[in-house]
Amino acid sequence: MDRAEAYQLVISMVTNKNLIKHMLATEACMRKLAKHFGENEEKWDLVGLLHDLDYDSTCKNPEKHTLIAADILKEKGISEDDINAIKGHCDQAERETRMAKALYAVDPMTGLIVAAALMHPEKKLAKIDKEFILRRYKEKGFARGANREQIAKCSDIGLSLEDFTQMCLEAMTGIASDLGL
Predict the structure, then answer these.
(1) DSSP string, 14-30
(2) How far is CA 58 from the centre of its chain?
């Protein structure tokens, strides 16, 4: 499956525009990390883009999240490693690969970055920096849905929280117009 096919699948299954933006942000962060680690950027892109493919149909049954997507993606020829990485972002599979561990940390980080940008008067990614995000990270009441323990798992891929935050911010800033930020 190429990126165009993956995107068409996303827009055919996901109705929430903010969720699509989250999936695009996750894709961008995964691409940046793949490049940093010398990994297959196309593979990491697809995993980031497709990771919440079944969210609309499973949001009321979170224990099924990623399992429906896994069946669909298997039929589309997506590899078991890629499917396991997607399943691992919500604890439906072990996170054994660097890609799976990266996706687990990236998923909530995108939400934290978006929330930080939205609290800035100009509501633009270009107007915030790593330090601004890290100050928000330390505020327990800010963006409660962005699981700090999960974000901190960036250490499992050998990145400090500071470096991870910077890389994700750069990746998301690169697609700011797609994110409306």
Answers:
(1) ---HHHHHHHHHHHHHH
(2) 18
The DSSP secondary structure of 105-119, one letter per residue, reads HHHHHHHHHHHHHHH
Residue 181 lies in a domain: no
Look at residue 137 and tell me if it is in a domain. Answer: yes
Provide the residue range defining the domain that includes 140.
3-176
- In a domain? residue 149: yes
CATH number of the domain at 100, please: 1.10.3210
Angle between helices 17-37 and 41-50 (to 10 degrees): 160
Kindly give, in sequence order, each residue whose CB lies less than 8 Å from that of residue 154, ignoring residues fewer than 6 positions away: 102, 105, 109, 160, 161, 164
Residue 127 inside a domain? The answer is: yes
Q: What is the pLDDT of residues 116-164, one digit of tens each?
A: 999 999 999 999 999 999 999 999 899 999 999 999 999 999 999 999 9
Segment (H or E) for 101: helix 98-119
Taken in order 46, 95, 52, 121, the sign of the CA dihedral is negative
Q: Mind listing the pLDDT tens digit for each residue in 105-120?
A: 999 999 999 999 999 9
Q: Whole-prediction pTM value?
A: 0.96
